[in-house]
Amino acid sequence: MAKMWAGRTDGITDQIADDFNSSIHFDCRLYNEDITGSMAHAAMLKKQGIIPAEAAEHIIEGLAGILADLKSGKLAIDESCEDIHMFVEQVLTERIGDEGKMLHTARSRNDQVALDMRMYMRTKVKEIIELIKELIEVLNEASVKYIDVIMPGYTHLQRAQPIFFSQHLLAYEMMLLRDVSRLNDALERMDESPIGACALAGTTYDTDREYEAELLGFSGISANSMDAVSDRDYCIELLSCFSILMMHLSRFSEEIILWSSWEFRFIELSDAYTTGSSIMPQKKNCDMAELTRGKTGRVYGDLMSLLTVMKGIPLAYNKDMQEDKEPVFDAVNTVIMCLRVYIPMIANMKINSANMLRAAQSGFINATDLADYMVKKGLPFRSAYKISGQIVAECIRTDQVLETLPLSEYSKYWDQFDEDLYEAIDLVNAAEKRTSKGGTSRVSIREQIELVNQKLAEMQKGTE
Ligand code: ARG
């Protein structure tokens, strides 16, 4: 069958070219946006008197029928169409006759697809933001629950200083809050309607772009028609935001995997979010966390694809840009899947506070506190640091820990040690004394929990 754009050519293409050119098998997911966008376009054409009012009404009714039938499954997508835009227009014309052919006045598929993608991404990003917020809520609840649990904080994956588990969780909450804020920034920047830019240069018809933008929930319109149809920077920006979000989830996944290992045994994931091995009966694998870590690579890849697709394209639209959709859709799917599994996985995670404490007790993570104790009694920090290190070395040699080393031993290294040193190096005290803003003391943790609650509430207000 000849193409809808037959004219300059006979519109008969080789099957192999058709298959190569066609995007309907992936852009079919834009049907909702495409049809809603077209309805607004018809309304604008009517208001401006560009097409007869009656025709516009028939078009809008026809489109509403197509949308309902696609949603209910009564109408199937015809994969032999080139893309979703052609499919909708074709069905419309089949259903309402020649009036359907008026819909494409004062627009082009170039601004149409640019509009569809913006609308689609706007919806999906809001869905993703909601999921991130849910994850933050789950983490914040855990931060309240585990506020008394001591664990070793690490640097270089070596036990470093005692912290409360909540401090660790809150670190991720802060990262996720920034992820939300980044996505919101991007949403704001992409909030301009490209429709009406037409093929590239605008149109001779007396259109009302602002009106159409308003009908579709945009705050404004793009100021330059060529920019409107030829940039996909907002997709790249969103994929960058997704990549950063996935990097955060991937680091968290790595920790979940480590903490679940028999070496750490800090946490245990619910059976519902782990798998067994087909050969080793003892295994309980953190596949969801591993997959999230692995899928981070996919999302980075999607970002790289799009950056590379866009880098050499002369203005304005070129068919290369059809290649934006698969990476963007893949990234959206991946991020949503990871978040959906993460929320219940974290909500159902059990923690082993006894093991966390045990790990905290045996790594000399209060050596800094021992040094600080001496500093408070007048010794310069560097000297105190050295003495503390020598005492640690002695403990390692004699298989002891700082908490139980007798005062007589301490006194060999410095004559001003006193009984009160044991209080200073007590792990809970050591964590609790870190009252500097943002530190691990429980006062600071409570402040952070409150801050997160506040930010979540503010975000809620923003979406109402
Ligand atoms: N399927 C195309 C895409 O995704 C729609 C725009 C086609 N425009 C054109 N002039 N061929 O980019």
Describe the secondary structure blueprint for this structure.
Blueprint lengths: L14 H7 L2 H4 L3 H17 L5 H20 L11 H13 L12 H37 L4 E6 L2 E7 H25 L2 E2 L15 H7 L4 E2 L3 H6 L2 H28 L6 E2 L18 H24 L14 H23 L2 E2 L1 H9 L5 H10 L4 H18 L8 H5 L9 H4 L2 H6 L9 H22 L1
Helix pairs in contact: 3-4, 3-6, 3-8, 4-5, 6-7, 6-12, 6-19, 7-10, 7-19, 10-11, 10-12, 11-12, 14-15
The chain binds arginine.
What can you see in these coordinates?
It is elongated and about 100 Å long. It has helices at 15-21, 24-27, 31-47, 53-72, 84-96, 109-145, 165-189, 209-215, 225-230, 233-260, 287-310, 325-347, 353-361, 367-376, 381-398, 407-411, 421-424, 427-432, 442-463, and strands spanning 150-155, 158-164, 192-193, 220-221, 267-268, 350-351. Strands 1-2 form a two-stranded antiparallel sheet. By secondary structure, the chain is mainly alpha-helical. The structure holds arginine. Arginine binds at residues 23, 27, 83, 109-110, 113, 317, 319, 321-322.
Short description, anyone?
The chain is mostly helical and about 475 residues long. The protein has 19 helices and 6 strands.
CA radius of gyration is 30 Å
Mean pLDDT: 95
Number of E-type strands: 6
The oligomeric state is single chain
Bound molecules: arginine
Helix content: 55-70%
Strand proportion: under 5%
Mind summarizing the main beta sheet? 2 strands, antiparallel
Q: What ranges have pLDDT less than 50 throughout 5 or more consecutive residues? A: none
How are the strands of the biggest sheet laid out side by side? 1-2
- Give me the strand/helix succession: HHHHHHEEHEHEHHEHHEHHHHHHH
Question: What is the straight-line distance between the termini?
Answer: 49 Å
Give the overall silhouette. Answer: elongated
Helical/strand content category: mainly alpha
Number of helices: 19
